[in-house]
Amino acid sequence: MKQIVQQNFSGVDGLQIETASASRFTPLSVLVRNKYTPVLPYDWMTEYGLLKGIRPVKLPMVIGYGFGGIVEKVGLLRDKSLLGKKVIGAQPTGAAMELINSQLPPLLFTVPDNVALSEAVTLIGGADAALHAINSINVTARDTVLVTGASGGVGTYLIQLLKLAGAQVIALASPNNLNFVKSIGADIVLNYQEELATQLKDIVPPTKVIDTVGRTDLLQLIAASFAELAIFSLSLTSFTPPKAHQTFKFSNGTIGVRGYRRLLNLLADKQIVAYIQAKYKYTDVKKAHLTAKNGLKQGRILLAF
Ligand SMILES: NC(=O)c1ccc[n+]([C@@H]2O[C@H](COP(=O)([O-])OP(=O)(O)OC[C@H]3O[C@@H](n4cnc5c(N)ncnc54)[C@H](OP(=O)(O)O)[C@@H]3O)[C@@H](O)[C@H]2O)c1
């Protein structure tokens, strides 16, 4: 089977497609024929050595974290009814490969019949992080939440899940994405590239911020514009808010099996939608990663196997 391997820290040039044999099938194994792996910032940032401080890795390694595919074989200790089912999951040891040997039951989820695998797989490293952020700061219908990175793989789900929670949403985006984030449901959209401080003066003050961008200067500018603010970041591990009634929290926790079930049901009920920017064949992985790193972002890019 084919797999995509990171050989060094020189960016996409260090990616190689290799032929490997599937890892040992055990009683705990579920063998999944992988159809899609999401391209996450986690992947390309690791390739360029940008996460060395927080994600030490041993090279060479298979890239990718999430997968979505069809179950081909089930180990003795696993649920036999999984056979032939559509599943999504996380594979912390690398997911960009044709055959996934999934051995951790809490990291594998069956996909409802009316949800496409390509849609469901965007939950991994996307909606799961968004839901975790919302749970972490107890968003209620009384909140107005400012979201940075609103057009991305996490941000597009943040807007939708915040609206489902009844909150008002202020979305920050680049000029080319203002209409896009508005169409997803943001109540107010702000262009972070132009006079943001002035725009922030003219809006209802947010009660909370969910940051997916991780720019200290951007958070400083936002925090300077309001007296009270609870700031949560998925991308910046530390930040000192400038004012007394402001808090900051970073977390990369999980949402558990119930969280994933809830998200899959929301997709099945059409209460949330997966925004898929593009699908690339896995052999075009370099192009896919360069677009994810440098191009305009609108939801999630997928590698197709
Ligand atoms: N802690 C966790 O558990 C966890 C889990 C998942 C993800 N994350 C992190 O969350 C972050 C977002 O992930 P993602 O998958 O949503 O990324 P993504 O799909 O690449 O989206 C990032 C968004 O950031 C915006 N952006 C890019 N450069 C910017 C800049 N200089 N200033 C302001 N906005 C900028 C882009 O929107 P525009 O084009 O409109 O500017 C883009 O839509 C990543 O850092 C990721 O590592 C953390």
UniProtKB/TrEMBL annotation:
Highest taxon of source: Bacteria
The Enoyl reductase (ER) domain extends over 11-303
Which SMART domains does the record match to this protein? PKS_ER
The cross-references to InterPro entries, in alphabetical order and at most eight, read: ADH-like_C, Chloroplast_QOR, ER, GroES-like_sf, NAD(P)-bd_dom_sf
Q: Which PANTHER family match?
A: ZINC-TYPE ALCOHOL DEHYDROGENASE-LIKE PROTEIN C16A3.02C (PTHR44013)
Name of the protein described by the UniProt record: Zinc-binding dehydrogenase
Species the sequence originates in: Loigolactobacillus binensis
